[in-house]
Amino acid sequence: MSLPEHVTIREVCLRDGLQIEAPIPLAAKLALLEAVVATGVREVEATAFVSPSKVPALADAEALAAELPRFRDTHGVEFSALVAGPGGANRAVAAGMDSIEYVVSASDAHSRANVGRSTAESTDLIADIARIAHDGGATIEVIVATAWDCPFDGPTDPARVVDIATAAVEIGADRIAIADTIGTTTPRRVTTLVELLRPVVGDLPFGAHFHNTRGAGLASAYAAVTAGIRRLDSSAGGLGGCPFAPGATGNIATEDLVYLLRDSGIGTDVDLQAAIRAADVARDVVGHDLPSALLRAGDRVLGRVRP
Amino acid sequence: MSLPEHVTIREVCLRDGLQIEAPIPLAAKLALLEAVVATGVREVEATAFVSPSKVPALADAEALAAELPRFRDTHGVEFSALVAGPGGANRAVAAGMDSIEYVVSASDAHSRANVGRSTAESTDLIADIARIAHDGGATIEVIVATAWDCPFDGPTDPARVVDIATAAVEIGADRIAIADTIGTTTPRRVTTLVELLRPVVGDLPFGAHFHNTRGAGLASAYAAVTAGIRRLDSSAGGLGGCPFAPGATGNIATEDLVYLLRDSGIGTDVDLQAAIRAADVARDVVGHDLPSALLRAGDRVLGRVRP
């Protein structure tokens, strides 16, 4: 097992975390963003440029983007935004995003449910999105959704993930990522897929996105790191979920991930105590409890109390 | 990475799960036990023979033990009980337990807080407990508690764990296990300790016990399995906790563990749907929510719904 010295965490609470919540005011998002950038994290998924009617919680994408330059300047944070097509990509670059995340679902049924296009049709659009991003001075990351399972089509044929990643690399994507969209994968399946994709992705930054819906999110994240992944998405407090899995827990919690990586000798840019404070803010702005373990238990503090 | 075809799960909800709960009636424990044995699990930690005043929830140990023969006969389940010294061991064999779990804390401060003896004094008692167990027709498992961290003494020197395991093997213990008593360990630390102990434990059955207090329980369990552990404790619904970590989540949940292992190609004796039903019963008998992920999200069911 070869573990890296460093893994890059991207904080996704402002997009994946909030997207199925009831809309919250821009001021609340900015309070959360303040807490997030105070953790030291260097990459933040700020919003999505998608249909405001489909995702009302992110309808303020342009307004939020207008607030980002001051955080970028003071904290050196890179801001990304998710898009579903060329229209969103144009909006994102116009709004000054540093990086565009373009999602391609590896399963046709999820792709059609999500964006009304087949996987092949979405793959064909990578070139357009990449051109829009690059012309606008942004980088493009292609995220393969339903990389392991689709709620409609069943387990995803890994060859479909390889095909999308291959197309993305050939077209000139700057980063590749794989996403466990519905929170079903487990460590061994992660290892298998990452090892299959590594030769395809080559030297490009290669990330993964896990949900803790069935408790295996952190185990999957660690398996991904042992298999060569060096970028992980996580969300303050574990905020977030999937519209297809009501009641399920959300993204892996940033503070839980940082704890696990730190005590495995793997550095991140994130300060653990600041991450717990950000999780606390996340809980406040959405007004309900969050699944984070560290938010309850805190860091391990040993030898300070006596029996 | 070499993964086994099978891992033995021991269900601990009746002991570790219930020990810090308010006492529940024997009939409720038997209802839970019915649900537990229906999962197919072959080993159940049924109770502890300890001071009723210190652990009132398990004060009915003899009464519960008297009910076990019918479950043993119909389901072929092996029942174990935890003991803290020779007195408890005598009670346990008199009550007909199949296996005695004797806990030795690797840290002096935890050992003294728990049983009023130093680690060395507790280690010296292994021979007595083993003789009582073997004379009574039971097997003995030595469990090293605070194997990674002690809330009072800080991180545990792995040499202390090795010393206890070495003594246990020399004295003739039938099984060795290591326990993350306060739920602080992480996968890499697990791998390191298991690899250090493997030559000591040799061919004896070697188990591990994790709590999910800081979210890393399943990741640690999977790391343990990849490092050679073939026995894992878990608790229906994730019932259980540690008196030293109030508000923290408890043992790793049996159903979450079974899901992770099954989808990693590792068999257990436990049926997942039956395990989810047992978790539901566990929630009912204690009357509060439990941290299990599968209890909320259920098994992955793919391809049955259409968008």
Brief description of this entry?
Chains A, B: One of its GO terms (biological process) is L-leucine catabolic process. Chain A has 307 residues and is an alpha/beta fold.
Give the topology, please.
The structure is a homodimer of 307-residue chains.
Chain A: E1 8-11, H1 13-17, H2 26-37, E2 43-49, H3 61-65, H4 68-75, E3 78-83, H5 86-94, E4 99-105, H6 108-115, H7 119-124, H8 126-135, E5 139-145, E6 149-150, E7 154-155, H9 158-171, E8 175-179, H10 187-201, E9 206-209, H11 217-227, E10 231-234, H12 254-262, H13 272-286, H14 294-297
Name the overall outline of chain A. Answer: globular
What is the CATH domain class of chain A?
A: Alpha Beta
Please give the radius of gyration of chain A in angstroms: 18 Å
Task: Please provide the ordered H/E string of secondary-structure elements of chain A.
Answer: EHHEHHEHEHHHEEEHEHEHEHHH
Helix/sheet category of chain A:
alpha/beta
- CATH fold naming of chain A: TIM Barrel
Which band does the percent of strand residues of chain A land in?
Answer: 15-25%
Give the tally of structural domains of chain A.
Answer: 1
